[in-house]
Amino acid sequence: MNWRHSITVRLSAAFALLTMLVFAVLGIYLDRSADNHMAELDAHELMGKLALVRHVGSQEDSPAGLAARLSDALVGEHGVIVTVDHGNTPVFSWPEQAPRELAQAAVAVGETPVRLQINGSDFRVVAGPLLTGWGESVRVVVARDIAHHTDFLTQLQRDFGLALLAACLLTAFLGVLIVRRGLRPVRAIAQAAGRISAGKLAERIVDREVPPELVEMVQAFNAMLERLEESFTRLSDFSADLAHELRTPIHNLRMQTEVTLNRSRDVDEYRDLLASNLEEYERLAKIIADMLFLAKAEHGLLVPHCENVAVQPLCARLLEYYGLLAENIDIRLSGDAINVAGDKLMLERAIGNLLVNAIHHTPENGSVVIVLSLTDGIAQIAIRNSGPVIPAEVMTQIFDRFVRLDPASEGSGLGLAISRSIARAHQGEITVGVVDGMTEFALHLPGNAAPA
Fold first, then answer.
1. Below-50 pLDDT ranges, the chain
2. With contact defined as beta carbons under 8 Å apart, do 167 and 23 qualify?
3. How many helices (H) and strands (E) does the chain have?
4. Does domain 307-448 have CATH number 1.10.760.10?
5. Can you tell me the distance from the alpha carbon of 345 to that of 314, in angstroms, rounded to the nearest whole number?
6. pLDDT of res. 342
7. Which pTM value belongs to this model?
């Protein structure tokens, strides 16, 4: 375990620090509450003793009588100090060895005790005037030694500190156990993920068995596995289809070459062989170029050069060029003059692929129509051809690579896939359907009403 970055250690330390903070605040509160409570008790006792001295002093008519009565009244009192002074002359002191510093301390006359430290000892002191029965005004000081209070608070703080340390250590230990137990589902997920390989991409982690906090992570992980499985399946299918497509021209090249090399031939026969091989090489080159184009499109590397493209002149030029293939087929262009923002060469390739596909699947004396329209800012280039319509169960696969409705066709089955990639690179789409009994491939692109 990497303790430096361990979640268990971090959470356990956080628990311990939180416990220390809570207990420290609680300890400070209890310490102050205890000290305030003891101060209240001392004040109550000191004020009672001060009242007693005043009562006795107001009734006695001599210092000796005052001393006698106070001595009797204070018998059994421990920690209480009483001094009565007339100026700097002591009148009464209890106990007799009471420190003179208390009587001479600068304690303001009042009803609130103050805390003083004299000769290393702590006292709470209250002072007040007294008019004696013999007519003199004296100063009364009543004090209490609070050493037992301070000793108690010191011991309480020490005990609380030890309890705080023990609580922190216990919290850290329990935190490790709790966090490790709480992270058990994460370890289970990691073990399940470790069992997944290229041959087991269909496995999923069941999110019903994980805590609610981890459901989102598990769902994201399962979604990633689905994408990986889909990509892996597509890659496997692509490899198989590519091998199948390349095998035919390579087999033709090999067979023709082997047949030609069986015996000596004249120059014209060798020239025919090279011409035939050149056609196969061109077919191979076209398949490879198309596959590279689709690979770039699938990885988002197909970035069109944006320009204003007039669609009607472009389609007219394509009809004129591919019209040579359309013997006994009526081809025409209709619709509005529209233009789109996009790459002119890419759009020409996409529309050309759709047009060639329509011509190849149109019977003799049939018709091919390109219809241009603009609806709600979307330009539609619809290429319709007569003849047998595409079966509904095939329409969902028609844009996949190497899909050919006619196995005898000389095409590679990549034209429609390339057209769809170009449309999506232009933030558009291609749809296929049946309109007025004709098969329609419609290219939808963001467009403008005004021609270029």
1. 1, 449-452
2. yes
3. 11, 12
4. no
5. 10
6. 86
7. 0.51
